[in-house]
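Hi Y.,

Following your request, here is the sequence exactly as I used it, all 365 residues.
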Amino acid sequence: MDLEDRYWIMYKAAFKRIDLTDYEKTEIAELYNDEGRAKIVARAKKKKIVPATTMLMCKLGIEDEFWKPLSDEYRSQNERIVECLDAVYSELRAIGVTKLGVVENFGALLASGQDLAMFGSGDVDNYADITEKDRIHNVFNKMGYTLEEHYAGSILVSSSFRNETMLPKSFYFSINWDVTCRVNLPCLTAKGPFVDWNDSRTYRNTDILIPPPEALMYICMMHIAVHGFCKAPDIRLYYDIANAADDGLDWSLIEKWAVRDETCVRISTVALLSSRLLGVDIPDKILNLGSSKARAKLLPIIYDAQGNRLKDFPNRLDELKIESLSDDRGGLHGLAGVVFPDSEWVERKHGSKTLGHFLHLKSLI
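Below is the corresponding structure, written out as tokens. Let me know if you'd prefer a different format.
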């Protein structure tokens, strides 16, 4: 077994919600002994999975004197983040703003009730209805946060809020207005609503809102598709699926949305990889959504079946292949959609249809 495959056993084990096998435990212990702590830490930093690696080593009882203080530090820091986020949601709730919720990795982590020490991202992602933008901005401003808006051309994608006196250095809260929008490639925007804000839940005894289980799972799945299935932070994104799957959700709703939005290949590919990499239990009807031929062509680009691991994110040509093969309408239609996107999207992004198409093609090169 080559070194990369050995590290991938560790990467996957760090995020598995199921019990590790004796084989996995032995392989990780031997890797640790062979490589040494410094190399393990360097790999974890490069992969952006230090918190999960820390928790794994604590679980296996490896050098507790080094790893346990780190896990305690992450847990304490994230408890403070929860306090700050709760304060914001409390202010928003007081003025009747309820069409928002924490999503992606932090949302899935809170929904599952897993250890807060597992979180180590540089921001907390929230999803909100664009009609609430002004009131949300006003509350953050009132609470001393600084605003930065992020656009894809003329399209407002998200707003980020920083508060250096309350949050960790360089940390911020993000409000995403389109959870499936990318800068250079056409948006994977849902063709209809999929979040019933009336069914949102709160995290424990806080005012922090979490979208309904099915909506949270759909967002997490589409987030992975937006990242081309294997783009950094790769394996960490699949932990979101493992956590979101905790909720006893109604998979028929996700199937319905995938058919409506023509995201069946994307959703089934994420489901299949989540099952293979982390052992997430997902119904066959989701695993088999869309074209099996498209999946068969797509998987070798993003997944190493022999090593049961994700491949390094491919070059631009392979990235275009991923986009075209992920399209439910077929590879040629998908490629045409990437190269010659909808004119309305081009105009929204670049402000001009004619010049916009040229700028879009340039961005793909």
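The chain has a mean pLDDT of 91.

Thanks again,
Q.
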